[in-house]
Amino acid sequence: MAQVNLLIDDNLKAQGEMLFEALGLSMSDAVSVFISQAVREGDIPFALTMRTAHVPNAEILAAMQEIEDMRNGKFPKQPQSVENLFEELGIDVDG
Question: Which residues contact 68 (CB under 8 A, 6 or more apart)?
Answer without folding.
Answer: 18
